[in-house]
Write a structure and sequence with these properties.
single chain, about 250 residues, alpha+beta, Dodecin subunit-like, Alpha-Beta Plaits, 2 domains, five-stranded mixed sheet, four-stranded antiparallel sheet, 6 helices, about 35% helix, elongated
């Protein structure tokens, strides 16, 4: 046991040195993956942490941690498409049909950091080294949606309810422009008013696309009265929620 601990410490030190050298350069290193997903227009940007326990065989620790990070990134994309209450129901199919080929849905990724940590779990005498890989990645949402449909996880054309919160929309012309274009957006079937206050307007849409696809459509809208920022956030009463903030153009007064 003592010899193994000494060996593990030496391995951990070597990997830590490699990890430190790699981390210095990885901030400038982006990997582009050739894939059918390159033709898709809807993209989700996310970050994910991959983790793998280091045993006596450490040769594949770097690769396995990265693979785990890619799977977790794709899982975040799935969470934005599949209703949260159904994820456990489809867990086996998701593992078999989607996560086993996670790289298919990664347009590109960048390694933000790699590190070795020691798990101080009481069930493991002396702890065990854990290899972490932290990445940011772009997910091809439309391709992922297509494969989820093919796997039977979601139904083609299934209508989803998406809540939309508008913040700082005091300009009525800007509000009308946005509302009209959301209603015209691809996949949107209906638009409902929920509530109005001075700086907050709550809407809801019924759409055959997910929140990330609709968010991308909104971000592509060219608004003359100002700039908008749209982000998908978690909602209490809906599986998807988009928050849109308006930044009006400041005009000079002569």
């Amino acid at each position: 046991m003592k010899a193994f601990k000494n060996q593990l410490s030496a391995i951990s030190y070597q990997l830590s040195t490699i990890s430190l050298l790699f981390t210095i350069h990885c901030s400038l290193f982006t990997v582009f993956i050739p894939s059918l997903a390159l033709s898709q227009g809807s993209i989700m940007h996310t970050e994910a942490l991959g983790t793998i326990a280091i045993t006596e065989n450490t040769a594949d620790a770097d690769r396995l941690a990265l693979e785990d990070a890619l799977k977790r990134a794709v899982a975040k994309g799935v969470e934005g498409i599949v209703p949260k209450g159904e994820l456990d129901k489809w867990a086996l199919i998701l593992d078999d049909k989607i996560y086993s080929n996670a790289a298919r849905y990664i347009l590109n990724y960048r390694i933000l950091s790699k590190e070795i940590m020691e798990d101080e779990s009481p069930v493991t005498e002396g702890g065990i080294a854990i290899y972490n890989a932290y990445i940011e990645a772009d997910i091809a949402v439309e391709l992922l949606t297509k494969d989820l449909t093919s796997a039977g996880v979601i139904q083609e054309g299934e209508v989803k309810r998406i809540s939309i919160t508008l913040l700082n929309f005091r300009n009525y012309k800007a509000f009308e422009f946005l509302k009209s274009n959301i209603f015209k957006a691809r996949g949107v079937k209906k638009l409902h008013y929920i509530s109005f206050t001075r700086d907050r307007i709550e809407l809801a849409v019924e759409a055959s696309v997910g929140a990330y696809t609709l968010q991308q459509e909104i971000m592509d809208m060219n608004m003359k009265e100002g700039k908008i920022e749209a982000a998908v956030v978690a909602g209490w009463f809906a599986s998807d929620k988009i928050e849109i903030r308006f930044f009006p153009i400041k005009r000079q007064v002569n």
